[in-house]
Write a structure and sequence with these properties.
Helix content: 25-40%
Oligomer: single chain
Shape: globular
Number of strands: 8
Strand content: 15-25%
Order of helices and strands: EEEHEHHEHHHEHHHEHEH
Strand order of the largest sheet: 1-2-4-3-5-6-7-8
Radius of gyration: 19 Å
Length: 313
Amino acid sequence: MKHERIALHDGRDDVTLTTYVLDDSPELLDGRARPAVLILPGGAYMGCSDREAEPVALAFAALGYHAFVLRYSVYGAGGPLDWNVDARAMEPRAHSVFPNPLIDVALAMKHIRSRAAEWLVDADRIAIAGFSAGGHNAGMYGTRWHDALVTEAVDATPDELRPAALIMGYALSDYRFQHARLDAMPPAERAVREMAAVAYFGEIDPAPELLDAASPALHVSAQTPPTFLWHTVADALVPVEHSLQFASACAAHGVPFELHAFEAGQHGLSLATRATAPAEPMIDDDAAHWVPLAAAWLAKRFSVELPAAMPWE
């Protein structure tokens, strides 16, 4: 496996692309390109969660995909996430506000494509997989990759940035809905959402037009790639309605999608197994089925054509 960490901005070490590129072999694909998955961890735009980074990359690598982890622009500067911050005391930081995290995804996609021949990546079959805030960022990219806002920022054509599929785990998709229900949220969840608002918008109470611009469910179109969504109905931080709304928008625009809503399980389950659980409540055997379900869904689009017989037959 080729493991490399690449800085995507000159003079900054916080936005990085980490590679999990599978080695080729005559016994495997013998020089043929593999599809890939670009993974966007969550972290409320305050940081990028380790739990939704390398373990997820290794899970997709085990399925035969090249994997990449993007640590995009966030409020913090690395290290453990601090959830004891008073959002009202947070000063806006220009690097983390919209559209900077979105632009970082485009930079990552452009870089992967620029090295596709070297890494044996099938440039036409690159999926974006995101979780929580990373799922929101994936949804933003999946609905805005072709906009001038994105293409001009990274000096690329839409074809150079086109994603082939989206995987969105417990993702926020409608900031209007989320913002409108802040008063009804439990204090801990509200505190996280307010921190995320300062990190992403620069303020706790963004203008309606900014909420609209940052709501991917409002921007689904025929150019949105096929999408796999999963969520838990018990999620108190990002309600399941976000995935339902994105799925409904896909249906309205003829975008192929698959949606799985598991009854139990907290927000932030990642793989929902011991591989990513810091404590027992983050293990859920039902929700952990999202990985094989997503694998089967991806295989319908990304499977590598194999010979009908072994070489010696």
